[in-house]
Design goal:
With about 350 residues, the protein is an alpha/beta fold. It has ten helices and 17 strands.
């Protein structure tokens, strides 16, 4: 098998040739036809998490190089272990990558993405930046039917992450403003999902006028440019009052600083993005305001199944994406690090 691996932080990924994996037990081998490129891939490539008051290296939390990134995976089943069921060679499947231990209380509750001993693909297990990936059980494979395979691959993270965050934000009346911070791949996924769920008042905030135009094309009803010192006031003015629901797909020090003052009493902010940073806020403000601060990371297996069904219904619009050959991975990582990507990049296998 072929893969592109991180050997040193922020250095070019190296192409590696290894023997094709042989499944055992309930394992399933998937030949990767499409793999989305995510901002968290960029974070892991750099090897540092920005925790606000300190920088945490991936080595310090047990993530070892060489590392095969990639967690938005779609492909064809090429081999199955002797105990694998409900799948056959030739099936085309989307892979749920947020694997837990399968045994703890959290996993038994269907929230493997929150498992303390999680082993997600592309992070603690080899991921989709290669020709094949080993999936431990067929339950993590989802039939996407006739969906565009490149677009469907993005549902495993950007789509799922947006969908799960939106579910945490509900209930919200269709005509009540929801503020979406960030018009990158996550934010655009959030816009089209909100539209598909019937929402009619989506306000998008971003630092880029170009990305705000893309957000409007995707279905945003109003936009706010987040440059200057009066961003909070402009958000409140655009909405028409303090905001009850904000979903922050950036979640850095700057966005947190203008989001929290914009909240109405009883308001809530869903904190999603992993750009990193820190916020100081009076504890009394949270209590007196009745504010809810809700963290959201990826989503559950059932939520991914629900999202795929929403897409199959025809209600979910496509987000902009660019499909490129897997061999262009290093150029794609460079473009993403420079903020030069509109929507998503999806790596795809090259014609034989």
């Amino acid at each position: 098998m072929q893969s592109w691996q991180v050997f040193e932080a922020s250095e070019v990924l190296r192409e590696v040739e290894e023997a094709n994996p042989q499944p055992v037990g309930s394992e399933v081998v998937v030949s990767v036809s499409h793999c989305g490129l995510c901002h968290s891939d960029l974070t892991l490539w750099k090897g540092i998490f920005d925790m606000g008051d300190k920088q945490v290296s991936i080595d310090s939390i047990g993530m070892k190089r060489p590392l095969t990134l990639g967690h938005e995976i779609l492909g064809t089943v090429t081999a199955i272990g002797p105990d694998a069921t409900d799948v056959k060679v030739g099936d085309i499947r989307l892979v749920y990558p947020w694997l837990g231990c399968g045994e703890c209380e959290t996993c038994r509750a269907g929230q493997e993405n929150l498992c303390m001993q999680g082993r997600p693909l592309g992070m603690r297990r080899p991921g989709g930046f290669g020709s094949h990936v080993v999936v431990p059980h067929s339950r993590y494979l989802i039939d996407t039917g006739d969906l565009d395979p490149a677009l469907a691959a993005t549902y495993a993270c950007s789509g799922l992450t947006a969908y799960s965050a939106i579910r945490k934000a509900m209930p919200v009346r269709p005509d009540e403003a929801i503020v979406v911070v960030g018009a990158g791949g996550l934010g655009l996924s959030g816009i089209v999902i909100l539209k598909a769920l019937g929402h009619q008042n989506i306000v998008v905030v971003d630092v880029s006028e170009e990305k705000l135009k893309i957000a409007s094309d995707a279905g945003a009803h109003k936009t706010v440019l987040s440059t200057g010192d009066d961003v909070t006031a402009r958000i409140v003015d655009t909405v028409g009052r303090p905001v009850r629901t904000i979903i922050d797909f950036v979640n850095n020090s700057q966005t947190a600083a203008f989001c929290f003052p914009a909240l109405a009493r009883g308001g809530r902010i869903i904190m999603v993005g992993m750009f990193g940073g820190q916020l100081t806020i009076p504890t009394m403000r949270i209590a007196q305001g009745g504010l809810s601060l809700i963290g959201s990371i990826t989503g559950s297996l059932q939520e991914l199944r629900d999202l795929v069904e929403l897409a199959k219904s025809g209600k979910l619009d496509a987000i902009p994406y660019e499909a490129i050959p897997k061999s262009s991975i290093n150029d794609a990582m460079s473009r993403l690090s420079k903020g030069a990507v509109k929507g998503r990049i999806v790596l795809q296998e090259e014609p034989a």
